[in-house]
Amino acid sequence: MSTAARLIILVLIAYTAMQPLTTNADTKVLNILSLNQPGSGSRYEVISLENVGTPDEELVVKGNRTTELGPPNSEGLIIMEITEFTADKTGYHAHTRIVAIPAAETRLSPGALMSAAG
After folding, report:
1. Cβ proximity of 65 and 87 under 8 Å
2. What is the pLDDT of residue 54?
3. Range of the domain at 39
């Protein structure tokens, strides 16, 4: 796996893992959604009520999603869209990046699958 791909994946994992940990005492997590569709993409989102019991109380949805944008290209790269988003009282805010990750790093080889199957 290339250094850039590893860094992107580690940042996404850290961002996702830290989301529930970085909330303050005035936040109530209402729901956590985590979906993974191998070969297609994934989605993670947290729905919370922030500033509970204050005049600034608001419903907030934060999360990210990844989408594979087709099969590997002629260079063996899978193009992926990564979007991080927040929806709150100020609106919907999304930041999207497009990255290319070697297909070998996103798929299990037939040998690995046979090993895992026993």
Report:
1. no
2. 87
3. 3-117
